[in-house]
Specification:
This protein is of the alpha/beta class and 71 residues long. The protein contains 3 helices and 3 strands. The termini are far apart.
């Protein structure tokens, strides 16, 4: 099962992504959420997801900075 981390500053968007489809049916597991880029970075380090779904505009660190830091 592939592990997914959701990073978005809007709680409603994160909740919407969670219920968008039956992730487990397609072989995915949502292992965590982050409300800003800094929180997402810490979650990436500790949870080691296979896939990151991220917003571009977030507080503390935007999605582009987060991707550059990941690289």
């Amino acid at each position: 099962m592939l592990k997914i981390l959701i990073a978005d500053d809007e709680a409603l968007v994160r909740a919407g992504i969670r219920v968008l489809l039956d992730w487990e049916t397609y072989g995915f597991e949502i292992i965590g959420e982050a409300a800003d880029g800094e929180e997402a970075w810490q979650a990436l380090l500790s949870l080691d997801p296979d896939i990151l779904l991220t917003d571009i505009r977030m507080p503390k660190m935007d999605g582009i900075e987060l991707l550059k830091k990941m690289k």
